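Q: Structure tokens for this one, please.
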Amino acid sequence: MSLTFKPLTPVFGAEASGIDLRRPPAPEQVEAINQAMDQYAVLVFRGQPISQDEQMAFTRTFGPLDIGFKKAANRQMRLKHFELADISNLAEDGSVASRDHFRIVNNMANQLWHSDSSFQDPPARYSMLHCVITPSKGGETEFADLRAAYDGLPDDWRAEIEGLEAEHFALHSRFMLGDTGYSQAQIDAIPRVRWPLVRTHPGSGRKLLFVGVHATHVVGLTVPEGRVLLSDLLEHATQPAYRYRHSWQPGDLVIWDNRSTLHRGRRYNLDEKRELRRSTTLDADHAEASAPAETATA
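A: Here is the predicted structure, written as tokens:
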């Protein structure tokens, strides 16, 4: 059976079928998935109850692995592989974590619109999130298409942001949420980087609007002016017309392209178990960040 892709929205996203993710994909399957990612940006694979080892083997076929935020905060792990991100509200013994557990803070940060590892160079390419346990209600993941967002910008906005860059910082969203207990070494572990607000996706050739919660300010503008601009652009990029909301089922695996999408988790009852695990690849061939910027102050 060959891979097939069924569009999920008129704008982006597709449900993929015709592959067993328990086995590493053949080269032609990797190529088909890459081409589909260039077109759809988000692929949904249903009914794939894969193990941690199988998820890692599948991910590795798409490039070098990213550890992202763990460079700054390498905390106790529940999962078998260091490269797997524990997107859950579970403590180390598998019970529901207390509200002051660091994993709950991660849940809160994941509910802000972001692109994984946009705060580093090279940034992330693909993220692959696998569902193990769902709560009774809520906990969906929303995606926004940054290519469609650029296409929908008014001409005067396009002219205004062309050539502008934003600085991205790994701990920006954590500081916003009051999670400030980091050493200077942790703060410096991932140097700040600058990315153009307007980028071109290397696979599709489409221009896109590169914004998200990791962006701290716009280079060359005052901090207030830049942050208001970033807020307006983020509001535009995440309007309902450019979104896909995924309702999780155990065994789902969703792949998204961090170069052309934003995502966020949705609220759920933190007293109920929710467990997903994420593996991520680096966009090692397409790094384009400028030299690290000096820290801006509000």
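A few notes: The first strand starts at residue 4 and ends at 7. DSSP finds eight helices and 15 strands in the chain.
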